[in-house]
Design brief:
Layout: H1 2-27, E1 30-38, E2 49-56, E3 64-65, E4 67-69, E5 72-74, E6 77-81, E7 85-87, E8 96-100, E9 107-112, E10 120-121, E11 126-132, E12 139-145, E13 148-152, E14 158-164, E15 173-178, E16 190-194, E17 200-204, H2 221-224, H3 226-230
Parallel strand pairs: 1-17, 3-7, 6-12
Antiparallel strand pairs: 1-14, 2-13, 2-15, 4-5, 7-10, 8-9, 8-11, 11-12, 15-16
């Protein structure tokens, strides 16, 4: 009986050690890179899409969400994968008429409220510019990737992106940045090369972020809206 107990205890501790080893290995298989995007004046740039084209992301089967809150698209920039679907709930107490003229990802969701709309599947990579046929001040963007690893900067211009461990062996790691102010109708990028051994990087875009005017909410749609910017 003592021999069996010793064997059981040994087997138990061996199993725990093996599990711990596997767990530790899985944790160390990736590194997190912190990217800061700024403009020419050093001001943080929100809603910039940062991509690492040499690293493919896992296929995302989830339905993404582009909400409508206070007559604005939330988030302003949504990054998804090609063939991924997007739901367009309306959290306002008024109706919206969402559309995009961006080919080949053009679509239209006529007057709706609440969760009446159906999800839209985006079959082609690129950028879909969103507008509302009723509220011209509503402008949003859906960035459709071809499967590369990416992230969107927050209000502080920062984004953390996880890459495979192998990325740290590269001294010339390719990084691309898209922003609506640089390329609103297409997915043209600013390219940069960074050292994969360093986990923190700052990328400067050739543009200037303008402060939002205090009276922007009272500005007439024709001076700041979709039709003014895109002529649609």
């Amino acid at each position: 009986m003592q021999t069996r107990r010793r064997y059981s205890h040994s087997f138990f501790f061996a199993a725990v050690a093996t599990f711990s080893l596997l767990l530790g290995s899985s944790v160390s298989l990736a590194n997190e890179y912190d990217i800061m995007v700024v403009d020419q004046a050093g001001k943080s740039v929100p809603n910039a899409v940062v991509t690492f084209p040499d690293f493919k992301a896992k296929k995302d089967e989830r339905t993404a969400v582009m909400d409508q809150v206070d007559q604005q698209f939330k988030p302003e920039v949504l990054a998804i994968q090609k063939t991924q679907s997007v739901d367009f709930p309306n959290s306002d107490n008024i109706r919206h008429h969402v559309y995009s003229f961006s080919r080949p990802n053009h679509f239209e969701i006529k007057l709706f409220s609440g969760s009446e709309s159906k999800a839209v599947t985006f079959e082609h990579n690129g950028v879909a510019v969103l507008g509302c046929n009723i509220h011209d001040n509503m402008i949003g963007f859906i960035y459709i990737s071809d499967g590369e690893t990416l992230g969107v900067t927050d209000n502080n211009g920062k984004v953390s992106i996880e890459l495979p461990k192998e990325a740290e062996t590269s001294e010339q790691l390719m990084l691309k940045v898209w922003h609506s102010k640089l390329s609103p109708l297409s997915n043209e990028h600013i390219e940069a090369k960074v050292n994969g051994k360093e986990m923190k990087h700052t990328v400067t875009l050739p543009m200037t972020i303008e402060d939002k005017p205090e009276n922007s909410e009272s500005m007439p749609p024709e001076s700041s809206g979709f039709k003014k910017k895109f002529g649609k």
